[in-house]
Model the fold of this input.
Amino acid sequence: MSELASTSPSAAFRTTQWTRVLEARGASPEAKAALSDLCAAYYAPVFAFIRRNAPDEETARDLTQEFFARQLARQGIDTVDPQHGRFRSYLLGAVKHFLAEMHRHAHRLKRGAGQPLEPLESDTGTSPGQQVADPNAASPEREFDRKWALTLLDRALTSLADEHKRAGKSDHFDALKEWLTADTGTISQAETARKLGLSEGAVKVAIHRLRRQFRQAIKTEISQTLKDPAQVAEEMRLLLEALL
Done:
């Protein structure tokens, strides 16, 4: 299997999904497909943010579905400034704008006829919108970033697993992946070496190589949400900080 770490910079940072969205805005099928892929990939952070601002989980899911339906209908994407090419920043700003619009709509309905929407207020889970928020709870923005980072890591791990599967090395990956997530439990490298029929030294080398591949896979996933490849290192630092 060719290592992800050996991928040249020009190959690793070729035109990405978010770049396609920014540069092919309008009726382009390619841009719509790219936006659809990105929205599907990053559903979890948006839902986490909306859930922190909605009275209950069902309302949060309905609002999340409506938000993405509007995005995929191209409402607002054509006004994105290509100079601000972080999909994460765009999506967070868009969902804040969406919730503010829903809140204004709810107030208009209250003043007029019709059935009002539930107010979009934070809750603590037992009495929506009525109790004082937990001062130790993460802010909706921080929760968004944390979910975003977890999604990126999961996508990178899945990409690496697929790479090993294509190379016929799924057994090696399954045996070694615990060292990527620090979830090794009671399994020792010596035990893993016996399981794979390798020396303990060979397993150490394989773990080092897999970690390097994982870092590159994360960078590749991050690059798909940015316009400027120069932002990858900073974005990676910010998202890893969000996990602390």
